[in-house]
Design brief:
Elements (H helix, E strand, L loop, with lengths): L5 H7 L5 H11 L1 H7 L2 E7 L5 E7 L22 H10 L3 E2 L3 E2 L5 E11 L2 E11 L8 H18 L23 E5 L4 E4 L1 H10 L10 H8 L10 H5 L6 E6 L2 E11 L4 E10 L1 H41 L3 H24 L6 E3 H16 L5 E6 L4 E3 H23 L4 E11 L5 E9 L13 H13 L3 E6 L5 E8 L2 H4 L1
Parallel strand pairs: 13-15
Antiparallel strand pairs: 1-2, 1-6, 3-5, 4-5, 5-6, 7-8, 7-11, 9-10, 10-11, 12-14, 15-16, 16-18, 17-18
Helix pairs in contact: 3-5, 9-10, 10-11, 10-12, 11-12, 12-13
Enzyme class: transferase
InterPro entries: H_kinase_PdtaS_GAF_sf, HATPase_C_sf, HATPase_dom, His_kinase_dom, PAS-like_dom_sf, PAS_4, PdtaS_GAF, Sig_transdc_His_kin-like_C
Protein name: histidine kinase
């Protein structure tokens, strides 16, 4: 939301933490806009005089007074004097009721954001007064809360760096429920939504006039599951978040202590019923666990099939039949290895470098029980979607086996596996894989299309959507190159 560009950083003379403090302000000031029933604008001085708008927030509790975006624009001449006074005085300055347009009257306040005795920026609040009516108790309380927070901004007490900035869903908002506490943690006011949220936890007659800590403790059935931050949140002593649960209801709480120059004089507690959010999250966790279990069982079944093929091959009299069963066993084992990797993580993607390191050595060793074959790897495959990992592992397995059995042809040698992953101009990742050996090289009539190479060609063209090319390796031997697009947006 904020536009803290490098030129502003260079000319602002910010000290350590100043820019981060303003970022924290803009990240949390939607709460103030909702409490104030007003638009908020953040102004920063320009070298040549005047101010530029860095950010703008509209209230969700009322209609906006600015329908067009003015971030990046210079301040209007009729607003600048008020901002100038606030910048110098370091106090909240209020204008009279001014008709900014032919159809709307607004009350404007300028609030200097002061840190370590220096004004860093000015926040202006713009509240529509054209539809004047007697404000409700809720509105009066909300506006007082907004004023208290903004005044803390003039003292450098808000925003607080201890405020949680985690990304977990379900952060309480003003409209979800607000409770105001006095310095002793006794409820002074609770919004209707706040009362409703607590009543879902259990039978609560009223909140006002009672300590929130006492109310919360009485509602909790299983105190072994209580978050250790709960006492400091429900008493309003620390600007933290916590979560409580009872009777199948989950309530997210956030405390904002209210302070002045001398001491803490109260707190705001925002509350939100996040039962449905947590239920959906648990469903996702359960589905992830189910998927992992499926991959685990598939891996076990494939390993069983591979073991049966191994047993059958030992009983085969025909060498050709034994060789066919051993090749089938290796292919099944390769697929099982991919499922084993998928069963160990939440994401449906594979760290292919870790997987192929084991598979590469295994393929060469199994294909060369009586040969001294060295294996060398270079480059990185990175994370690959599972729908590409399985066919690519099979292709590499077949090509390495072919290089050992036919390229090296019963003698010692080396097999290389090289990966080159790049991001193209259109943002798509491409992968080039090369399997090479220093063996006898390609026969005069080209390579023979056995079953293994037929499988390779089919997997490359249909499953991987790539190309494959055989060539003579410089220095002797054979080199096979695969090229494919990764389609990460579809697979991950």
């Amino acid at each position: 939301m904020a536009i803290f560009t490098d030129p502003i950083r260079e000319h602002a003379g910010f000290e350590p933490g100043d820019a981060e403090w303003l970022h924290l302000l803009v990240g949390d000031w939607q709460m103030v806009a909702d409490l104030a029933f007003a638009d908020l604008a953040l102004w920063f001085p320009l070298d040549g005089g005047g101010y530029v708008a860095l950010a703008h927030a509209r209230p969700s509790t009322s209609h906006t007074v600015f329908h067009s975006d003015f971030v990046g624009e210079r301040i209007r001449a009729d607003l600048q004097p008020l901002v100038d006074v606030a910048w110098e005085s370091q106090k909240i300055e209020r204008s009279g009721e001014t008709n900014w347009t032919t159809e709307m009257a607004m009350r404007v306040e300028a609030v200097p954001m002061v840190r370590n005795g220096r004004t860093l920026a000015v926040v202006t609040t713009h509240m529509d007064l054209s539809s004047s009516r007697m404000p409700s108790r809720l509105e009066l309380t909300y506006r007082q809360c907004a004023y208290d927070l903004l005044r803390m901004g003039t003292l450098g007490l808000w925003p607080d760096f201890a405020t949680p900035t985690g990304s977990r869903r379900g952060a309480p908002r003003v409209g979800d429920g607000l409770i105001r506490l006095d310095v002793d943690g006794i409820v002074q006011y609770a919004s209707p939504n706040g009362v409703s949220a607590f009543r879902r936890l259990g039978d609560v007659e009223t909140l006002e006039g009672r300590p929130l800590a006492e109310i919360t403790t009485a509602l909790l059935k299983d105190r072994r599951m209580v978050d250790e931050t709960l006492p400091l949140v429900v008493t309003g002593r620390m600007p933290w978040r916590t979560e409580i649960g009872s009777r199948g209801v989950s309530l997210s709480l956030r405390a904002i202590p209210l302070r002045d120059e001398k001491e803490r004089f109260g707190a705001l507690v925002l509350c939100r019923d996040v039962s449905e959010l947590r239920r959906r999250e648990m469903e996702l966790v359960s589905k992830d666990a189910t998927i992992r279990e499926i991959h685990h069982r598939v891996k076990n079944n494939l390993q069983t099939v591979a073991a049966l093929l191994r047993m059958q091959s030992r009983r085969m009299v025909s060498e050709e039949g034994k060789l066919g069963l051993e090749q089938a066993m290796r292919r099944v084992s390769t697929i099982a290895l991919v499922h084993e990797t998928l069963s160990q993580g939440l994401a449906q993607s594979v760290d292919f470098d870790e997987l192929i390191s084991r598979q590469f050595r295994l393929s060469a060793e199994v294909a060369s029980p009586s040969q001294a074959v060295r294996t060398e790897r270079s480059g990185d495959f990175g994370e690959l979607p599972s729908d590409l990992a399985t066919p690519l592992a099979l292709v590499i397995n077949e090509l390495v086996t072919n290089a050992v059995e036919h390229g090296l042809s019963g003698r010692a040698g080396t097999v290389w596996l090289m990966a080159d992953r790049q991001t193209e101009a259109d943002g798509e990742d491409t992968l080039r894989v090369t399997i090479a050996d220093d063996g006898v090289g390609l026969p005069a009539g080209g390579h023979a299309e056995g079953l293994g190479l037929q499988i390779v060609r089919t997997l490359v063209t249909s499953e991987l959507g790539g190309t494959i090319e055989w060539s003579t390796r410089p220095g002797g031997g054979t080199s096979v190159t695969l090229e494919l697009g990764l389609r990460l947006n579809q697979g991950m």
